[in-house]
Amino acid sequence: xxxxxxxxxxxxxxxxxxxxxxxxxxxxxxxxxxxxxxxxxxxxxxxxxxxxxxxxxxxxxxxxxxxxxxxxxxxxxxxxxxxxxxxxxxxxxxxxxxxxxxxxxxxxxxxxxxxxxxxxxxxxxxxxxxxxxxxxxxxxxxxxxxxxxxxxxxxxxxxxxxxxxxxxxxxxxxxxxxxxxxxxxxxxxxxxxxxxxxxxxxxxxxxxxxxxxxxxxxxxxxxxxxxxxxxxxxxxxxxxxxxxxxxxxxxxxxxx
Amino acid sequence: xxxxxxxxxxxxxxxxxxxxxxxxxxxxxxxxxxxxxxxxxxxxxxxxxxxxxxxxxxxxxxxxxxxxxxxxxxxxxxxxxxxxxxxxxxxxxxxxxxxxxxxxxxxxxxxxxxxxxxxxxxxxxxxxxxxxxxxxxxxxxxxxxxxxxxxxxxxxxxxxxxxxxxxxxxxxxxxxxxxxxxxxxxxxxxxxxxxxxxxxxxxxxxxxxxxxxxxxxxx
Lengths: 256, 219
Hints:
The complex is a heterodimer.
Chain A: H1 14-17, H2 20-36, H3 40-57, H4 61-85, E1 90-92, E2 99-100, H5 101-124, H6 130-139, H7 144-173, H8 182-212, H9 229-255
Antiparallel strand pairs in A: 1-2
Helix pairs in contact in A: 2-5, 2-9, 3-5, 3-9, 4-5, 6-7, 7-8
Chain B: E1 6-13, E2 23-30, E3 35-39, H1 46-54, E4 61-66, E5 69-70, H2 74-83, E6 84-87, H3 100-110, H4 115-128, H5 144-156, E7 162-166, H6 174-186, E8 190-194, H7 198-204, E9 207-211, E10 216-218
Helix pairs in contact in B: 3-4, 3-5
């Protein structure tokens, strides 16, 4: 059984039925805007918007929480470092260290922004199969090489995962136990090298199989997406929301 | 009319870096309508023979004729691959499209068919192999037997005049093997099967050849 899963991809919620191209565009613009935002007003409004989208996607809260925990695990390190190193007015002196007011404000802003982006991406991007995403990107005229890289990576990730599991099982049945010693390191190095060699060989075989079926360097797609009235509504609402965020940011920037 | 489908003359081939060649002055002919099984120990060159015919490896010496045309450079083999289908031993090497329908339609699209035509051909081919309803299944989530049948459909969708199968029964259960046997028995084009499984070959081919360094010997 594969460990690679797409827990949010299959459902019939409002967010799942939208045209993937619209969702990708909206998520992309939102992420750029959020990443560039410098005011709490825009960041908070963005977070609220992302939460609304998440509610519309009706995803299992527990799994979403688990994903956010991973992101916020990285953000904890920012909280440990940034307030101590960011220049500004000192508000607290724990021992030899100094916590700056500006550092706290800045770290808080980053926390809000990254959570807003993550939640929006879970609600808009994770709510479709990676394959669909690849095809949507292709239709949005992204370089086809990049799209194929995504699709091929995803397709063969599963094969490599199985190959990896087979190799690990082969180690286990011969009594291998990981420890802190040279034998373990050597074994892991062999494992990684083996996986690399296998993947190289496989790439070769896949290419040959493609040649046998008349591949001449160009891919053709069968899939067409249909743009429906709910996509129009979603597009207009997204534009309005993004304009609102821009306004908040612009007004807030003036008062800073 | 009895011009051979495949005619290999005085082929010498060694893999780069390998000391002894796989084939030395090797000769082989396949006649139209023949259903042939290739047997022999591991490493005797059965798969290599199929790859030579498809132009996936090139001989150091000798002459290859496929369907009456000499094939020597890549361009010739591009034409060969439009008319000769090779089913790989491992279907995971062959199925790379996200969904079954896209994978089966990949060959016809490469042949210049429109998406609508390609889809039509893909659906018909899948129906013939009892794969109706599999169109939107995701290829990597299929079972081993299903993958094998889909990879066969993907090759047959190109409507080849000759089919080459490399160990088609590996990892198949009895039921899928039976399906494959029945399908091959009804197939009206020539085919060549590499297999270690006597029972399977017994039901599907008319004659067996043992692959040697110089020739294929009728068993």
